[in-house]
Write a structure and sequence with these properties.
The complex is a heterodimer. Chain A is an alpha/beta fold. Chain A is 18% helix and 28% strand. In chain A, the strands form eight sheets. Chain A has a seven-stranded mixed β-sheet with strand order 5-4-1-8-13-10-14. Chain A has a six-stranded parallel β-sheet with strand order 16-19-22-25-28-31, with no helix packed on it. Chain A has a six-stranded parallel β-sheet with strand order 17-20-23-26-29-32, with no helix packed on it. Chain A starts with 6 loop residues before the first strand and ends in a 9-residue tail after the last strand. Chain B is α/β, with parallel strands linked by helices. The chains are: A alpha/beta, B alpha/beta.
């Protein structure tokens, strides 16, 4: 028998994140490193803990090894509690056979027994691909005061970009009368952030109805939410103000990292009242050598910097050797940039090695045709040989041989 | 694993008087070191990495900061159902506080009695090193010694508070023990780290107490040279000895030597410490940082050269720091110049100040000061 929890969170972490290509070849998107020492999932998990939610189910499916390892018993987020805590919930086999999670709604449906043992009044549904700090308890208070069946967090996007988002059209009291998925002519700029709070009795009812409907694709956005709206349930939009970024693509992941280098960083991860917790590496402080030069960069523990950094982020244990230059790039844990190499406008994944004199990425102003420009990506563990050249927008998943000069 | 048959005993207060400025408000074991550590992290991690999963920490006074640091022992994997971390405050003899190592060990006799482990490691917090106790224990068993003393064959540090020189025969058997510093000379000097059978320790301590003997080196080691088998274990790695503010300064600075850094923080035997969940360090535009050890959570906009910055230090624009050790959460305003200075935690330096120490006499600024 578990003590009752008023509100628990379910975090959808099973997606492949195929638009991150090489970065999610062996790990699920929520486990992708972010911001020098974090992984994407640290943000929703820390938000839960800081909002007073200490029971979190993490729905895993694609490449769960690293993610499961990373979550462990939840201790880094103070989630190693007696009854709640963090639980990895993979698809499972039952007496009626086994199913993969068919969609986001089906993933929650399959875990109704997990939710029911806490007998919650409310369930927060989160996704593992956004960078933001949000107090879910404020959203919950809004949900309660509006006596809603479902509250959806909404972000004000610029009107000209609204047609790229799922738009929530609301009445004056905040209640939603229409979902408008990627509208050609948007009526408002309230974009859905994919963060929902449901009253559990309502959600349960609609999940069961959705499961019984063979036509359904078992997706929250496409099926469950429209079904609730059509049935006349009260659904409201809660306007979120603050920094929020979807990091589902290479460009947006790079941009969100670069946003941290703004001296007036809108995310402010150093705020002691809203810490972003993470599984800390066990490494000594970083060393900056005699010939090093670090300009507007983030550097963390275990790094050894002897080269030049500009507008870059180094994760734990990264080495930048003498004469190497890293500009506007993200170097993930354990990677090495060897003597005289240049890394610019690039993401170098975990444990990759950039050989001496190699050049990775190109500056936008170097391009003949600006449309060919993009962030170069070196996949995890890939070795780029000495003096090799990697073009802008390249996605390198295999070792590149040395080039003799 | 053999390590499970060993209990570690750490003396957190020994040598307190050698660095009074930083130990005034804390025990020796909780003196901040190397950007993100406390000195006790080294013996504790060494024990844990050698498979020891029961450690008693002997404390005496001012051990609040130590308890805050150690917590449940989770950071060292010592928060366990069976065994784990034991903090051993002063105990016994009415209100008397122990004065020496023998009395301290006598004070934990009931703890020792209840230990089912066969072997004991004794260590202080003044030796900064990465030591594999498994090898010390192997050597202890090979030689069938009563006591194994870890020693170093090198130039003897000048200010050791317990200077003990071992004379050894070719098999590393100790033939004589001489107290007194061979300053600056090459010598086989004791690191004050001992391995012995628990039963032997209990018997020896009980005997010393009943005969009113109080000096561990004189009454147990020197007296025992003839009647007991005392062997040395030669440690080849880096060791930094903390025994004065000058050596504290020097050992911190040693971390900028790549060989020292790699030896001390061997990734196969990591040094653990309490986590703070700070964000990575931010280097501002125009910052100039060279040859420095820097922990997470710093914001650096000025110039930093040959410094150790602990977690959460802020260095404002136009400020110049050279040869400084700046402990946690110290904030340095703009256009301030600091040279050869040790700043304790939470110090605030306002704009436009200058404080210049020298290598032989670094300035010390106490915890929480406002300059």
């Amino acid at each position: 028998m578990y003590p009752k929890q008023e509100c628990i969170a379910m975090l959808l972490a099973g997606g492949q994140g195929s638009r991150l290509y090489a970065l999610t070849k062996r790990i699920a998107k929520p486990a992708v490193p972010f911001g020098g020492k974090y992984r994407i999932i640290d943000f929703p998990l820390s938000n839960c803990v800081n909002s007073g939610i200490d029971t979190v189910g993490v729905l895993t499916q694609y490449q769960p090894l690293v993610l499961n390892d990373y979550l462990g018993n939840g201790q880094p987020w103070d989630l190693d509690t007696m009854y709640g805590g963090v639980h990895a919930l993979p698809p499972y086999q039952g007496t009626h056979g086994a199913d993969w999670y068919k969609g986001t709604a089906n993933a929650i449906y399959q875990n109704i027994p997990f939710i029911e043992r806490y007998n919650p009044d409310y369930v927060v549904i989160l996704s593992g691909d956004h960078i933001y700090k949000m107090d879910y308890s404020e959203m919950l208070a809004f949900h309660k005061s509006h006596k809603a069946a479902c509250t959806i967090a909404a972000y004000q996007v610029p009107m000209e970009e609204a047609s790229r988002f799922g738009i929530l059209n609301c009445r004056e009291d905040g209640s939603i009368y229409e979902f408008d998925e990627k509208p050609k002519v948007p009526k408002s700029n309230n974009a859905s952030m994919g963060i929902y709070i449901f009253s559990w009795d309502k959600l349960r009812k609609y999940l069961e109805m959705d499961e019984a409907n063979p036509e359904s694709s078992n997706d929250f956005g496409k099926d469950v939410l429209p079904a609730m709206l059509n049935a006349g349930e009260k659904m409201v939009a809660w306007k979120f103000e603050g920094y929020w970024k979807d990091v589902g693509t290479i460009d947006s992941l790079w941009e969100a990292n670069m946003d941290l280098l703004d001296p007036n960083d809108p995310l402010d991860m150093s705020d002691p009242s809203w810490r972003i917790f993470t599984r800390n590496p066990i490494m000594p402080p970083h060393y900056v050598g005699k010939n090093a030069d670090c300009q507007n960069s983030l550097v963390t523990e275990g790094c050894i910097v002897n080269g030049k950094l500009e507008f870059s982020i180094l994760f734990e244990g990264v080495q930048v050797e003498t004469g190497a230059k890293v500009t506007e790039s993200i170097i993930m844990p354990g990677a090495k940039v060897m003597e005289g190499a240049v890394v610019q406008f690039a993401i170098v994944a975990e444990n990759a090695v950039i050989g001496p004199g190699a050049v990775v990425g190109e500056r936008p102003e170097q391009m003949e045709n600006r449309d060919d420009w993009g962030i170069a990506v070196i996949g995890g563990g890939v070795k780029v040989g000495a003096n090799a050249v990697v073009k802008a927008k390249a996605m390198v998943e295999e070792d590149i041989p040395e080039v003799t000069k | 694993m053999r390590g499970n048959n060993v209990v570690g005993i750490i003396f957190s207060n020994m040598h307190d008087d050698t660095m009074q400025q930083v130990t005034n408000i804390r025990t020796f074991g909780s003196v901040p070191f190397g950007g993100r550590y406390r000195t006790i992290d080294f013996p504790l991690s060494n024990m844990v990495n050698s498979g020891v999963n029961k450690v008693g920490v002997i404390t005496k006074s001012n051990y609040q900061s130590l308890m805050d640091h150690l917590g449940s022992g989770k950071a060292w994997d010592l928060s366990r159902k069976s065994e784990g971390l034991f903090i051993l405050p002063p105990f016994g003899n009415g209100n008397q506080m122990y004065n020496n190592r023998i009395e301290a060990l006598d004070g934990i006799s009931s703890f020792l009695k209840n230990c089912k482990e066969e072997f004991v490691i004794l260590a202080d917090c003044d030796m900064i090193c990465n030591l594999d106790f498994k090898k010390v224990l192997d050597s202890h068993l090979d030689t069938n010694a009563d006591i194994t003393i870890v020693y170093k064959n090198s130039e003897m540090p000048a200010d050791l508070s317990e200077p003990v020189v071992l004379e050894l025969n070719g098999q590393d058997k100790v033939t004589d023990i001489v107290v007194g510093s061979k300053k600056g000379e090459k010598a086989t000097w004791s690191m004050g780290i001992y391995v012995m059978r628990k039963a032997f320790l209990q018997k020896t301590i009980a005997e010393a107490v009943s005969r009113n003997r109080s000096n561990f080196v004189r009454d147990i080691l020197q007296r025992g040279v003839l009647e007991n088998k005392i062997y040395g274990y030669r440690f080849e790695g880096y060791v930094g000895t903390l025994d004065s503010m000058q050596s504290y300064f020097k050992v911190n600075m040693d971390l900028m030597n790549m060989e020292v850094l790699k030896d001390l923080f061997n990734p196969m035997r990591p040094i653990y410490t309490k986590e703070r969940d700070e964000m990575p360090t931010r280097y501002g535009l125009g910052s100039v940082v060279t040859n420095s050890i820097i922990a997470d959570g710093c914001v650096i906009e000025g110039e930093v050269e040959n410094c150790v910055l602990f977690r959460g230090v802020h260095v404002g624009k136009g400020s110049k720091l050279a040869n400084c050790i700046i402990m946690q959460d110290t904030v340095i305003g703009e256009n301030t110049v600091l040279t050869y200075l040790v700043s304790d935690k939470d110090v605030t330096f306002s704009d436009g100040k200058a404080m210049i120490g020298t290598e032989s006499y670094p300035i010390y600024v106490s915890k929480g000061s406002v300059v």
